[in-house]
């Protein structure tokens, strides 16, 4: 019998969350088209599986990711709509693959323009030219952007590049409206007179009411990521506030139940000492499965439908839970670590001092996955 731990991926939740995002995008005016949606599926679809994302996001207008091999897998799985590589390409040899599989690219550095200038693709490659508006990660500086875009137009005239667009990335759309407004103003000032579509909004930018509609009324693509998987980009707004559903549920079973006396230590280092006699259980999940090692005593879990907490330090393969609120629990009882029927992944992440993004991506390959 396999070890009793499981990650369940809900395709219906993925589809539902995409619909929630799409409903946010009703045009504010008749002259403004609805933005199109690139569903971001980088990092193996935030740990949910690339091919699961292809199915769950079948109604998206496009997919955005990092890895060219994953883009090829999406095409081979039957995805025919646009695909965007968010970091573009890295070697001249990649260009033939981009052409063959009709993969669009972000162009964020002069080295990429230089490689493209030496290429002779039979079919032009669509591209978004990225402006650094303050994230200071990728993108041309404002002083260099107009020249970079002119180079891209020249490559377009040579049929090396196809359709062109302009993009940037918000640094603080989740917590600082003033900084985001500065980024939007800089982007608008630098790109308004340049032709092509626009791509700016991430999850936080998409869920912030009306933010996307402040941009020029041209073809616009948004790039939601974390919200599509049922987690929140905001510290002060849970995913449930937006009607989002968890697409990943991590659960395990109790493999031991015992009664301990007052003063008994629990786990490595006896980081938790029982203040009174109590019942504890051991669940078959540890940091080698992707559960956050630094999750402290009190991190929420759900046992047989009853919310309770972890106790002491996490082990490689096990964690200990307080069964005081769930006296009916027994060996074999289900423990929901996060997801449907349990705490939100954001609540677990907050307790552990990390982000839901990291927990999704950290679920280990040894954890069995079932798709529903």
From TrEMBL:
Catalyzed reactions: L-alanine = D-alanine
Summary of the function given for this chain in its UniProt record: Catalyzes the interconversion of L-alanine and D-alanine. May also act on other amino acids.
Residues the record marks as active site: 42 (proton acceptor), 268 (proton acceptor)
Keywords: Isomerase, Pyridoxal phosphate
UniProt KW Metal-binding keyword: no
UniProt superkingdom: Bacteria
The protein's enzyme class: isomerase
Family per record: Belongs to the alanine racemase family.
Binding sites annotated in the UniProt record for substrate: 137, 316
Name of the molecule in the record: Alanine racemase
Keyword Endoplasmic reticulum: no
A molecular function GO annotation: alanine racemase activity
Gene Ontology CC: cytosol
Residue span, Alanine racemase C-terminal domain: 247-372
